[in-house]
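forwarding from the other thread:

> can someone predict this with iron/sulfur cluster?

sure thing
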Amino acid sequence: MTPADRKRLKISELPEDFYARIKDRLQERIARELRFAGRVLDVGCGSCELARFLAKKNRQHVIGVDISDGGFANNRLRGETVECHKADAKELDFLQEGSVHAVVSLYALHEMHKPVAVLKEANRVLRGGGEVLVVDFPRGSLAERLWNEHYYTAQELEDMLKAAGFAAIRASLIESGQLLWVTASSPEAEARPPAGSPQSKQSRLSKLKRKVAGLEEQIKGVREHIQRLRTAAQGKQRAVVDRFRCTGCGICQELCPEGAIRLTYVASVDAERCTGCGVCVQSCPQGAVRLSGRERAPSKSVR
Ligand SMILES: C[S@@+](CC[C@H](N)C(=O)[O-])C[C@H]1O[C@@H](n2cnc3c(N)ncnc32)[C@H](O)[C@@H]1O
Ligand code: SF4
Ligand code: SF4
């Protein structure tokens, strides 16, 4: 939660088009959260706008599901991988167990009649360790005043995710307290045998193997993501570090595939080496790096 988010504004201080104003920023934030997933399921996708955004931004394969297909028209743009299905989210028979890497639901869970059943189904189709992200209006928010609907509290959402079998549940209020942002992960499906038993050792070993396999897949996802960013950027841009924001944590240096970042208290970018892949921009926890057009950049090392 940013300091701005923590400062919960009075509803009367917010403009009526508050949610429209934060739309772009929210889509970016969701894309960032789910960027390492290859296949994403969007539950209650409406007109598939978020699905299209994710497909375009992250080059992901996105499966949108909505009980109504009224907004599906033109859901496939050239070069995008979006498929929208008309289906009740609590019965996704066309998706196999563990077949998606992440699930997102934006502004939709509060509309679903059996939210726990929907979340259970999301858990079924999510691979072990995969993330679910629920973004919805919280009780007592501006949305309630605008549309007079029933929304959940953070605690209620957490309880539902728990009842649906999710682990590592984290809920927070974002955007001046007007949105609930809840993440959780699908646990490895396995009952635990008694500690010390041969089955326990066996099970720990197979669990470790699965974890390694999962990590390998995640690394593969990161590599593919880097490759996609590289291809997209094709050297048209380069990274620029805001030295006043940079804390010198070194994450960008660690992740830069070109070895283009140097650390001397703060990070600096070797413009000759930088391909503009954007990995440092995505990975910087301070938001201290941005991409800038090459034509405006000096040709030597710059900061
Ligand atoms: C407020 S809209 C949000 C749509 C979209 N996520 C967005 O952000 O624009 C909620 C959507 O949930 C869908 N919905 C409600 N119950 C559903 C269910 N059981 N299964 C799938 N979709 C459902 C509705 O048809 C509607 O399109
Ligand atoms: S990741 Fe961000 S804060 Fe850390 S060294 Fe790089 S630019 Fe600085
Ligand atoms: S954009 Fe960042 S990560 Fe990519 S090559 Fe340039 S400095 Fe390295």
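The domain at 232-296 is CATH 3.30.70.20 (Alpha-Beta Plaits). thats all i got for now
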